């Protein structure tokens, strides 16, 4: 048997002198940028943004203490009415420490987390929906949490998925520039990824989480340079999908009906929204006073969680609630101001993604509590009970502070 000789491997064309010089210049430029980034990373954080974060965290803890102690008293048989507040306070301290630590890191290092964090998020989202998984936790007919056996530590993988989308999109989009205008490179890969993640979250079911992931990703794609026509098509497709889910398939149809008129079933499906509206109306202009809410005494469901803003309205009134909404608006606007003055596209896109999450989540929560939107499970950033969620939110604020250290200089006045 005659053996055939292997064809010689194709040799690479030797690099010309001009190409070698160009490569050396690119490498030198990259080293200079890395050195410049390391020097700029030692700059000061954006103080107004930091103060706003601490204000909202502090006020959120005070309102959580006020809203949660009746439920905590009842659940612990009067032994520890501050149990919710203490646990939230511990996670707040951990979150602030994480925010300050992350704020000192050169944000260019976050590029290395883009793919590993995305893979981790997908794995965790799959674990949540695997039938019979002992780590999965079900509440109110929704399986959205994973817990560590033998401990009280629980978290929602969707929180990690939101952060993963922000970092991965920022890293990938910042490298493409003009190619974001094309369907193959600028639309298809990101749209498929968003659909997969949103589908995994929606199966739990967690409609609000899916909306947050889709919303943050879409805004980052728009800022990254996709054409407006793709935005219009995406909004049309999202509207059609929402109509099919809510109107045709009938997902949470009772919630839609009770949203239109909660008094159709005041003791059943419409009870939560009805009690929320009563709670808000009870506050009037100035409120009944901090700590003096009546509806939190087991009348309003989820008073320390998704519907804590209703307690804010009752105790602080329209004036106090408006001040808190203005604090959220100031935080979001300041975040986007940092994005506008970021040193590069990667930092700018990360801040846009983080602040879109905060802004969209705040709007959805307040919209649900006030009856502007159908009732769905979504928390109020910095206020609602949930230690791991608060820690992750504060860690995301650390990313914004890290980018703020390397902002472009602005003209005074």
TrEMBL record:
Keyword Transmembrane helix part of the UniProt annotation: yes
**What reaction gets catalysed by this protein?**
[GlcNAc-(1->4)-Mur2Ac(oyl-L-Ala-gamma-D-Glu-L-Lys-D-Ala-D-Ala)](n)-di-trans,octa-cis-undecaprenyl diphosphate + beta-D-GlcNAc-(1->4)-Mur2Ac(oyl-L-Ala-gamma-D-Glu-L-Lys-D-Ala-D-Ala)-di-trans,octa-cis-undecaprenyl diphosphate = [GlcNAc-(1->4)-Mur2Ac(oyl-L-Ala-gamma-D-Glu-L-Lys-D-Ala-D-Ala)](n+1)-di-trans,octa-cis-undecaprenyl diphosphate + di-trans,octa-cis-undecaprenyl diphosphate + H(+)
- Location, primary (coarse class): membrane
Q: Where is the composition biased (Basic and acidic residues)?
A: 15-37
Which BP terms does GO give this entry?
cell division; cell wall organization; peptidoglycan biosynthetic process; regulation of cell shape
According to the record, the segments passing through the membrane are 47-65, 85-105, 117-137, 153-170, 182-201, 207-226, 233-253, 307-337, 349-370, 382-403
- Which residue stretches does the UniProt record annotate as biased composition, category Basic residues? 1-14
Q: Where can this protein be found?
A: Cell membrane
- Supply the Pfam families for this chain: FTSW_RODA_SPOVE
Q: Which InterPro entries match?
A: Cell_cycle_FtsW-rel_CS, FtsW, FtsW/RodA
> What keywords tag this UniProt record?
Cell cycle, Cell division, Cell membrane, Cell shape, Cell wall biogenesis/degradation, Glycosyltransferase, Membrane, Peptidoglycan synthesis, Transferase, Transmembrane, Transmembrane helix
Family under the similarity heading? Belongs to the SEDS family. FtsW subfamily.
Its function?
Answer: Peptidoglycan polymerase that is essential for cell division.
Designated name of the protein: Probable peptidoglycan glycosyltransferase FtsW
Task: Please tell me the species this chain comes from.
Answer: Dysosmobacter welbionis
Give the source lineage, highest ranks first. Answer: Bacteria, Bacillati, Bacillota, Clostridia, Eubacteriales
What gene makes this protein? ftsW
